[in-house]
Every structure is written in C-alpha cells, then in structure tokens.
Design a protein that fits this description.
single chain, 145 residues, alpha/beta, Diaminopimelate Epimerase, Chain A, domain 1, globular
C-alpha cells in the first residue's frame, strides 16, 4: 500500500501545496499515488485521469501528478485546455524537478514543489476569478494499490 511510504505528514504537505497552488488559478490539480504501474506510465496516468473525472472541468484545465512508488514511475499530465497553451518545456521542467527529489526519497517535497510549479504556470494562463470560480475537483490525494 502506498500509504506505507507516504505518511500523514507527507499527505498534509502535498495537500497544502495543492491548496496553495489552486488559490491563484481556476486550474485543478490532483495527485494519485500507487505502488505499481502496469504497462506504460503515460497510459496509466491517462487511465487515472479519466477515473478521477479530471476531463470534466469547465476549462479543461486539470493537471494530474501520477506516481507509482515501487516501480519508480512518474508522469504529470495536463488536460487539453492546458496543453494547448503552456510552453513546450513545461512538463519536462516539472518532471525533472520532481524526480530530483524522488531520487533522494523526498516524495512529499518533490510532489509539493512540482504542484507549486504547475500552479505558477496555471496562474498565468487560468487566473483565479472570484466570480463563480469553484474548486471542481477534490484536493485529497487518491491512492491506488
């Protein structure tokens, strides 16, 4: 179970980063953690993205951080609205930062840093509006097997 690796304190750090990032944007960020990734990591992240209904945000601006801890797999995946406008190196920069922390087994710190980086980009393209801006997706971390 991934909860063996991610402590309650880690979970709090990650969720606080999500909430901080989402304060400035209408974008929605989710984190999904499981032990193993069957097959290609991007295919699995796409599956989880759909299972979490992340494609149903109004502006198609959801971002998923997917981690398979024991298999050492990571992917960050954005919906169509984001992919159409972020710089080419956006996902690669976040991935490099997160993985640099993962190599030191700093999972919470790596995810928190990546989430904050995503939030900064989202803020410039999908700024928060106090006119009907809702938190469309849960800030809770979802866990797989």
């Amino acid at each position: 179970m991934p909860k063996d690796t991610i402590t309650d304190a880690d979970e709090k750090v990650i969720m606080e980063a999500i909430q901080q990032a989402e304060r400035n944007t209408s974008g929605e960020i989710r984190v999904h953690i499981e032990n193993n990734c069957e097959g290609d990591v991007l295919d699995r992240a796409t599956e989880v993205f759909a299972q979490l209904h992340m494609h149903l945000t109004r502006q198609r601006n959801g971002v998923l951080f997917y981690v398979a801890i024991k298999d050492h797999q990571f992917a960050v995946l954005g919906d169509a609205g984001i992919n159409a406008i972020v710089p080419d190196h956006f996902w690669e920069d976040i991935t490099a930062e997160v993985i640099s922390h993962f190599k030191k087994q700093e999972y919470a710190a790596g995810l928190a840093k990546g989430v904050i980086m995503a939030g900064e980009q989202l803020k410039s393209h999908f700024p928060y509006s106090d006119k009907g801006d809702l938190n469309e997706l849960s800030d809770d971390i979802s866990f797989g097997k």
